[in-house]
Amino acid sequence: MAEYKDAKGIKVQSLSADPPAPFVGQVWYNTTSGDLKYYGDAIPATWATGGSLGTAKYQTSGAGTKTAALNFGGAVPSPYVPTNLTEEYDGSAWTAGGTLSTSRRAGAGFGLQTAALLATGTAVPGRTNSTEEYDGSTWTAGGNVGSSKTQLGGCGIQTAGLIFGGSPLPLTSEEYNGSAWTAGGTLTNGGFDIMSAGTQTAALAIGGDGGPPDRDTTEEYDGTTWTAGGTLNTGGSQGAGAGTQTAAIIFSGNNASNSFTNRTEIYDGSTWTNSVNINTARNWFASSINSPQSSTIAFGGETSGLPATTETEEFTGATPAGVRIIGTD
Amino acid sequence: MSKTYQYCVAENWGKGFIDHKESEKITFKSFPGNVWQVPAHNKDANLWIHKVLGTPKTVSEAQTIVDAVISAAQTTWDNDNIEGESTEQKVERIGARPLNITLEE
To answer: Of A99, A241, A295, B101, whose CB is crowded by the most CB atoms within 10 A?
Structure first.
């Protein structure tokens, strides 16, 4: 194997500890840990294109993570009917999964690719109160929600879920324990087409439509009570989110003027900060909502001029400058 | 006046169409009709257009493409009616009527 000196013309420093103030590009060998290290520059956040959905949908639902995501339900344009389709993502391609028992759009979806949940939403001829649970191949019936709604928020996992807001503008939330829904805390603002992140006991209800203009508010849930959180830089609705209550992300959707926005915003538990824009603005799409803030995907939805898209985009959060390991003995 | 953006038409094939390295260097924005906006006078953007076999368009050519797609979408929206459905219900069912878009130079 080539020596580093032969390739670069210099030797690598051997140090018993990492240098206290390394410069960007500096390389050294840490004799204590046995790691070859370098000091890397900051890397900005990015949105890259991902594999395309098999079927374009809007008002669709999502769950899972960036490399194990799930897309289910929604509406398929021409003739704009709710669908029972499920698709599974492996980080590069979407493949067909099991079909829902009740075709629906604008339901609340969350959980993991092998343990997802879909609650309520709009079916034919109207809103359904049914819940369905996915095990990685088959959807089966769960407990019915207390009140049917559509275009609502939701987060958590299959055995500890939370739904909130929606249309017709209820301020209620409901909690799921894996078999039954019970009443949760009361929202202050609510809204439909609201964005979501977090868990059943540490959730975020973000933005939403409650009559123009769309909201720029955030509400934080502790498992009992909703309280006010930070204010969005761009108020809006019909976007999607991921992450936790103290490290969340939302992206795209409509702005307060009901126009498409490419925005991405990240939350630290108190303040929303703008990040890199998504490439294709969209609304009524879905995300791998159970992903961390730094690693999620957006898929489907309406784009300007297209009633539904198959496009997927993959978000990678910013990496600060710091020590990175090239290799280990 | 120097242009800020350049436009091309390229079909998004999915994974790898825009990769993370390209996203680090270039600000992308997509429009109807597979129209992509990238920075003008930018070597990385030029290389990306070449990679995706993009067809360069002037802003006015790109605007014509976008307008045609939006106009067709507006007509589809206008003609999609269910008897007895209010405008509010229609928006809830299929979304808002597509808005016109003006591309920047």
So the answer is: A241
Residues A185 and A138 in one domain: yes
Note whether A279 contacts B: Cβ–Cβ < 8 A: yes
In tens digits, chain A (329 residues) has pLDDT values of 667 677 777 789 999 999 999 999 999 999 999 999 999 999 999 999 999 999 999 999 999 999 999 999 999 987 788 999 999 999 999 999 999 999 999 999 999 999 999 999 999 999 999 999 999 999 999 999 999 999 999 999 999 999 999 999 889 999 999 999 999 999 999 999 999 999 999 999 999 999 888 999 999 999 999 999 999 999 999 999 999 999 999 999 999 888 999 999 999 999 999 999 999 999 999 999 999 999 999 999 999 888 899 999 999 999 999 999 999 88
Both structure tokens of A166: 């929606």
Q: What secondary structure letter does DSSP report for A42?
A: P
Which one-letter amino acid corresponds to residue B35?
A: V
**CA-wise closest residue to A150 among A214, A62, A59:** A59
- Number of structural domains, chain B? 1
Same domain, A307 and A222: yes
On whether residue A168 sits in a domain, the answer given is yes
On whether residue A174 sits in a domain, the answer given is yes
- Same structural domain, A33 and A65: no
Q: Does residue A241 sit within a domain?
A: yes
Which residue type, as a one-letter code, is found at position A65?
A: T
This prediction has a pTM of: 0.93
* Residue in B with minimal Cα distance to A42: B24
The rounded distance, in Å, linking the Cα atoms of B6 and A231 is 34
Report the residue from A51, A151, A316 with minimal CB separation from B20: A316
With CB atoms and an 8 Å threshold, state whether B24 touches A43.
Answer: yes
Same domain, A252 and A152: yes
Burial environment of residue A17 by CB neighbours within 10 A (0 to 12, 13 to 18, 19 or more): exposed
Where in the sequence is the domain holding B69, given as residue range(s)? Answer: 5-94
Same domain for A145 and A171, yes or no, is: yes
